[in-house]
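Show me a record, fold above all:
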Amino acid sequence: MDKKIEKLLIKKAKKLSKWYEGVFVNPIFWEVNGKPYYMAGFTVGNNPKATAYLTTIGEEVKEEAYSAQSSLSLMADTSNNIFSIGGDHLKIDTAYYTGPLAISVNSTENSVAEGHKAFQKLWGVQQKFNQLVNEYQSFYDNLLLRERLTQSDIDYTIETANWVNLYQYETLSILLTQNSVLRSYSGHLETTKEWKSLSKDQRTFVTKVTDNRTKMEEGLRNLALIEVDNPEKMVELNLEKAKNNLKSGIEKQKEHIRYPV
């Protein structure tokens, strides 16, 4: 963001802030009637308390600002969610999967072989998840450079958020439905001579990834996805559900708009 624009917007926002609040301005703008509108936020600690929608051209108009709010808030909330969940997944070292999978499975027990396949599936989902988040980060970096938000940016962000939920669903489903065979697999790995060659973190990951079923079941419930047998239909249905949920949530945020009112 141009320094002069940033200075102007911060100055405007500070006039609307309370003495104990922090102020920030999102560098991305939404254009309404040829005017760029930016979202300013007011925080206490790290918690957002209110927003304002400001323009660098003339005076703010309530109808224009509220139109901009729908797009700017939706983009901010959805992208933050992608980075929050995606960031947690990116922290998982790839060696936590590749290390154990490099150990040959020499067992006649079906449960061990099935557990090995399930762990491979988890690794496959993790790779798709990593690619999704990295691609979105690249997209977002480019958006920050051009600054102007478009409807196609919002559509892509909602689609990405939907895939974030679907990959979480796929991961949790594997961990829950294949829990016992994954335990058999990790138990077998512990008997191999290569086990001690793994790092402590690798060994901990492969043995503990199946722990806390209650938390995983809760996570699956909280996703509240529409479940159908047809994968393509499931993507489509949940994308539409996500759009409706986001619009509803953004509408509720209007009561926290500080300016213009």
